[in-house]
Amino acid sequence: MSVRMPAPNGAILARRREIVEALRRIVPGEGVVADATELKPFETDGLTAYRQVPLAAVLPQTTAQVAAVLRYCHANDIPVVPRGSGTSLSGGALPLADGVLLVLSRFNRILEIDIDNRCAVVQPGVTNLGITKAVEHQGFYYAPDPSSQIACSIGGNVAENSGGVHCLKYGLTANNVLGVEFVTIEGEVIRLGGKHLDSEGYDLLGLLTGSEGLLGVVTEVTVRILQKPETARALLLGFPTSEQAGACVAAIIGQGIIPGGMEMMDRPAIHAAEAFVHAGYPLDVEALLIVELDGPKAEVDHLLAVVEGIAAAEGAVTAKVSQSEEERARFWAGRKAAFPAVGRISPDYLCMDGTIPRKELPRVLAGMRALSERHGLAVANVFHAGDGNLHPLILYDAAKDDELERAEAFGNDILRLCVEVGGVLTGEHGVGVEKRDLMPEMFSEDDLRHQQRVKCAFDDKHLLNPGKMFPVLHRCAELGRMHVHRGQVPFPDLPRF
Question: In this predicted structure, what is the pLDDT of residue 495?
Answer without folding.
Answer: 45
